[in-house]
Design brief:
2 helices; Jelly Rolls; 2 domains; 12 strands; four-stranded antiparallel beta sheet
Length: 237
């Protein structure tokens, strides 16, 4: 190849290289601070009463995109079980909350009320360990439970076995209630009773004293007040 032709080829190659578009690194997502990176870690509300939050890492634009009003932190809310759930940014060194959002009987789908009679007799000659409410029509399904307990005392007392559970006509059961606080003359308590899946139409609910399954030498009296059932309870992302 002649010297002139060689020079022409080299010049042509340089011109082509200068005209070619430059290859740049990936631009940060819209709404991202390049110095902070493209990802954020959030606590995502699952709307599950048993596992309310999970930790997930997402693109910052999915959390807060200032050019799109449909994508920002305030819009990461959901409603289930009558509760408003909201995702939130996870602070460094912290973990997602494991607290269960509060239930409310005011928002329950079904409320079963018992009489004012105590479980376990006030006399040693008579024992009453259960009470059943009949004539109910609670459809099969998954429910979160809230149980109300109380007692009527004449004086300050220390009692350790003031607990009961709900037994449904399909054989399902709630968790046992927490023990009533000692001391007050008229204590009351509301307890989360877990999540139950009813396999068929429930027509009756029985309040069963803790002593039925945990026989003790001195079971204490308790008044089962109510059971509130709210549809749902399984994880839903």
């Amino acid at each position: 190849m002649k010297r002139g032709m060689t020079l022409l080829v080299v010049v042509s190659m340089l011109v082509a290289a200068m005209a070619a578009p430059a290859v740049a690194s990936k631009a940060p997502a819209s709404g991202a601070d390049p110095e902070e990176g493209h990802k954020v870690t959030i606590c995502h509300a699952t709307r599950s009463l048993t596992n309310p939050y999970v930790e997930v890492t997402i693109d910052v634009a999915a959390w807060n995109n200032p050019t799109d009003p449909k994508h920002h932190g305030d819009n990461h809310t959901r409603t289930k079980h009558g509760i408003t759930w909201k995702d939130y940014l996870l602070e460094e060194g912290q973990e997602c909350s494991l607290d269960r959002p509060p239930l409310s009987c005011e928002l329950a789908d079904f409320v079963v009320e018992f009489s004012d009679d105590k479980l376990v007799s006030t006399t040693s000659s008579q024992v009453r360990l259960s009470e059943t409410v009949t004539g109910l029509t609670i459809p099969a399904g998954t429910y979160s439970l809230l149980l109300g307990s109380r007692d009527i005392r004449q004086r300050f007392l220390v009692q350790n076995n003031e607990q009961w559970r709900a037994v449904f006509s399909d054989g399902s059961t709630s968790l046992y209630t927490a023990d009533l606080p000692d001391g007050p003359a008229n204590p009351s308590l509301e307890t989360f009773g877990g999540v139950v899946t009813l396999t068929e139409l429930v027509t009756s609910v029985t309040a069963e004293h803790w002593d039925v399954a945990n026989v003790s030498s001195s079971p204490d009296s308790v008044i089962p007040d109510y059971v509130c059932l709210t549809r749902g309870g399984g994880a839903e992302l």
